[in-house]
Target: Methoxymalonate biosynthesis protein
Amino acid sequence: MLDALSALVTETVGDAARGWDVAGEIPLDVLRGLGAKGVLCAEAHPEFGGLGLSGTDNGALTAHTGALCSSLRSVMTSQGMAAWTVRRFGDKAQRVEYLGRLTDGELAAVAFSEPGAGSDLAAMSTRIRRDGGEIVVDGTKTWITVAAYADWIVVFGRYEGGGAVALVPATAPGVKVTRVPDPLGCRAAGHATVELDGVRLPEEHLLAVTGLPVVMMTTIALTYGRLSVAWGCVGILRACVEAVARHAGQREQFGKPLLQHQLVARHLAELYAAERTATFACEQASRAWDTGSPEQVPASVLAKHVAAGNAARGAASALQVLASSAATGGHVVERAYRDAKLMEVIEGSNEICQLILAEHAASTAG
Ligand SMILES: Cc1cc2nc3c(=O)[nH]c(=O)nc-3n(C[C@H](O)[C@H](O)[C@H](O)COP(=O)(O)OP(=O)(O)OC[C@H]3O[C@@H](n4cnc5c(N)ncnc54)[C@H](O)[C@@H]3O)c2cc1C
Model:
């Protein structure tokens, strides 16, 4: 099935990724088409209309997509994380209802970040409260990937003594979605600010009244997101390896191909090593995810940290080799350079990943 899904993504993207990046938009029918085939959240269980891919195969599909278009891969990450949130925190009826929608072409964004809560999600101030048979959601979420396309915003917030998730229709009264203008990278991923002003919904839209602190709930959701972003970075690295190998093998300076200049060859060697180590870290984390090992949490952070750093350095290196050939808007390596830098910021920045890894190392040492 993985080969068929990869072929479908290749065929769908075709040569459009550059145009999507320049325009800052992926046509909605493309996203709905892939969504309705289950490709955007391919791990969802067949019982709920999904394809039931393993985490490892879904990772390979995510890397394949990331090599073609990081904006589309970002949509895949959000949709997959939304599906995982419903699966993890929803009851049976909610899984049937919402996973059915997400595998049927409806699109979802996942909203943690706020103006005062980026790295520090414990500072989140969005509130979800009950009022009679309804829930009411108030808050502002920033930089929410896919929000500009989404039918659903999966909103994390404070609820009574802990946290909860509200499934908010993007068209509900009190919801205002405003596109982030001119983002640095993943330009067609539909980033937006989402303002929620007294949004009233039936209580069936409330997930996870478990008493868990909101930051613990975000960690559970982000384990999926981190692994997905990590695989996306593997895709960026693969696209860079291919572009550098092709260009440096063909372009001649000083009477021979660039690749025969050892300082250029070193760039390719380092890129290749970066792609391989990121892949190994992702494969190890996906195996932990697939077996339900508790190692999946630190392994996903490790994979994300290694893959994002490697992708940012690797894309810079690829741009150095392609030089003026890649220095125009939307070129695959120019996109990689911008997109990869943002991967060091999101889903737990480099520094936040380092803090988590240091804590893990300290707790497991000796
Ligand atoms: C392209 C893109 C897509 C995004 N998509 C989503 C989305 O779909 N959903 C969502 O909820 N959010 C999303 N975000 C928001 C993203 O999660 C935040 O940008 C990220 O968590 C960092 O928060 P911040 O930008 O507020 O930076 P800050 O938290 O202000 O951090 C600024 C800098 O300080 C460092 N820093 C902060 N605290 C510490 C510390 N304790 N120790 C050391 N260094 C520290 C950070 O690493 C960073 O380098 C997205 C952002 C971008 C750019």
Q: What stands out?
A: The chain has a mean pLDDT of 96.
